[in-house]
Specification:
Structural class: mainly beta
Distance between the termini: 33 Å
Number of helices: 1
Strand order of the largest sheet: 1-2-8-3-6
Number of strands: 8
Mean pLDDT: 91
CATH superfamily: Jelly Rolls
CATH architecture: Sandwich
Shape: globular
Number of domains: 1
CATH topology: Jelly Rolls
Low-confidence stretches: none
Order of helices and strands: HEEEEEEEE
CATH class: Mainly Beta
Largest sheet: 5 strands, antiparallel
Helix content: under 10%
Length: about 120
């Protein structure tokens, strides 16, 4: 067997939100489903406020449900199901005006310089 697997969206979303943290007082809205050297994939379903800060790796968002406004590097973009968003490392970004069903896969690329969450 190859070690490959399939994860359904509902299965990834089921445990969210995770317990609250100081950064995410309403509960962490993501979980990591792949954590390999050079690549990390998360499911991200923020509600209310997106508290994320810039990351030290490039990332891609694959929006699979709902809609939101993405604020990135001083510009705003409407995003919705089916959209792909590319965010270079260290670029300020966050989602706002999210619909109640907004959800996106997030893929980080490259090695982490320092531990990063969120």
């Amino acid at each position: 067997m190859s070690g490959g697997w399939v994860m359904k969206l509902g299965e990834a979303l089921a445990p969210l939100p995770l317990p609250a943290t100081s950064k995410w007082p309403d509960g962490e809205p993501y979980q990591c489903v792949v954590n390999e050297p050079g690549a990390q994939i998360l499911i991200f379903a923020p509600r209310g406020t997106d508290h994320q800060t810039p990351h030290n790796r490039n990332e891609a968002y694959f929006v699979v449900g709902g809609s939101a406004t993405l604020k990135m590097d001083g510009e705003t973009h409407a995003v919705g199901a089916g959209d792909l968003v590319w965010v270079p490392k260290d670029v300020e970004h966050r989602f706002c005006d999210m619909s109640d069903d907004f959800v996106t896969w997030v893929a980080f690329f490259g090695l982490k310089d320092t531990p990063t969450k969120g």
